[in-house]
Amino acid sequence: MPEQGSTPLVLVAGTATGEVLRLDEPLSFWGGMETVGGRIIDQRHPQVGEIVAGRVLVMPFGRGSSSGSSVICEAVRAGTAPAAILMAERDDIIALGAIAADEVYGLLMPVVVLAQEELDGLETGAVVTVGVDGTVRASDGAPDPA
Amino acid sequence: MTLRLEERDEARLAGVEGPAQQMASRVVTRLAAAMGADELLDITGAHIDSCLYHGQAVLDFANRLADAGARVVVPTTLNVSSLDLLHPEHARGDPEEARLSRRLMERFEEMGCRPTWTCAPYQLEVRPGFGEQIAWAESNAIVFANSVLGARTNRYGDFADICCAVTGRAPAAGLHLDEHRRATVVIRMDGVSVDLLDRDVFYPVLGGLIGRLVGKAVPVVDGLEPGVSEDRLKALGAASASTGSVGMFHMVGSTPEAPTLEAALAGHRPVEEVTVTAADLRAARDRLSTTTDDDLRTVSLGTPHYSVAEIGRLVELLGDRRVHDGVAFFVSTGRDVLHEVELRGWADRLADAGVSMVTDTCTYFTPIIQDVTGTAMTDSAKWAYYAPGNLGLEVVFGSTEDCVESAIVGRVVRDEEIWADA
Description:
The complex is a heterodimer. Chain A is an alpha/beta fold. Chain A has helices spanning 68-78, 92-105, 116-120; strands at residues 9-12, 16-22, 33-34, 39-40, 56-59, 84-87, 111-113, 127-130, 136-138. Chain A has a single domain (9-138), classed as Phosphohistidine domain (Glucose Oxidase, domain 1), CATH 3.50.30.10. Chain A has a seven-stranded mixed beta sheet with strand order 1-7-6-5-2-8-9, with helices on one face. A two-stranded antiparallel ribbon of chain A has the order 3-4. In chain A, helix 1 links the parallel strand 5 (56-59) and strand 6. Chain B is of the alpha/beta class. Chain B has three domains: 7-178, 2-Layer Sandwich (Aconitase, domain 3), CATH 3.30.499; 182-286; 289-419, Aconitase, domain 3 (2-Layer Sandwich), CATH 3.30.499.10. Chain B is 39% helix and 14% strand. Chain B contains 16 helices and 14 strands. In chain B, helix 2 (19-35) crosses helix 3 (56-67), helix 2 packs across helix 6 and helix 8 (202-214) packs parallel to helix 9. The chains are: A alpha/beta, B alpha/beta.
């Protein structure tokens, strides 16, 4: 649960621009996404088949296996990870995947905890920019080519 | 909240103890900051999940540490890998990926980890005691350690596990601390038959339901007969950590921090109280299946790795019968348990019955199952949850008895009566 008055809470700092993908339910990255195309493969997830690669992923919290960190790190390496992950609660499995990707490859995928009201204002399809301080702004430009 | 580090942590971060300690300390410290910890604490053991090959990234990370000369400083066990070293005949995966998987396993052995290759380290001879601070990865092992052993670990992910083992330090946050271990959600049963409560299959189904209900909260199950077996608690925990993110649960009269409901709640009022009915359990059971096709091709048991008692139960259920020719039947377990099973003469009996033992890995992510058409059956909520996505097969969840009877006749048969209202 985010501490009062402390959001955005930056778990892993970085900048990113991308189209928002709101998940209706939390996603376990391990067993839930594949890293070749960045697609959701959890057949019980309401958004199975959606591509998370390059999207600013908005979800309530993380779920499931601790192998999720590896899947995130591998996806960052392969270029199929979300551009950023925004959640309402801290999640160390997700943060760790991003920390490892920074340690080994120097690639930063921001992971930020935001107040629920702020997450609720992020609609799928909107293009937003995540700042190094965790602020999320509507982006006027196209998503970063990278 | 700011993270206060001790001098020894600062020294490691500065590189005084070499590049391996520096990198591992940096990861632990960054994780501690992300978790909101205000200090690090000493750990007495670790269980590593990073040894499972998920692609180049995990090997790159392990190489970085091992090349820098990293060694674990606490007793450290290893989770399942992507290979069955004892039964190479099972391998159906890409040989290049197998080579990389093997290399990854070697790197962790080089760092001083024990080659236990099991997701159920709590079934090894030596296991953490009550109150011990540990850093375990693998969701089912984490929930078991916290709930059943009363040891204390957070839900560590890959990378953190080995970095904690190398530094002997972990973020003082979450389930390491008293305040996060008390239950906030009370789960009670209403109208569930005594017969169902007394079945093994009740526990993974209840666990699957609890995971969906509570997400990452700590639940307490109240109103069951005390002294529920470790195998049943294990099935409940593994299921709740698959459908949800449960890192710890209490069961009044069965888990060490819940001698009473009040003790589990640590004197607080619950945030939520949920009553589970027979209909809820039927729905939870049905959610674990993806098909009604009864054309059975595969049965897979042992997720998490079967215990000696669970294998004994399987031997008893099979009797002198044999698995149908059209069905491949797998049981996953740890090599230590397999050794015990061999000593008891059960391994030969199972082989004669047409059962294949799998060690060091698990059938729900490693390509072992040959025929992914038709229906696969399992008694594991975790397997049922993950295998369809990982392997592209259809699954029916059933009791161990259902799995055995189905395997013998070669099509799915399930005992529906136990699921009726009381």
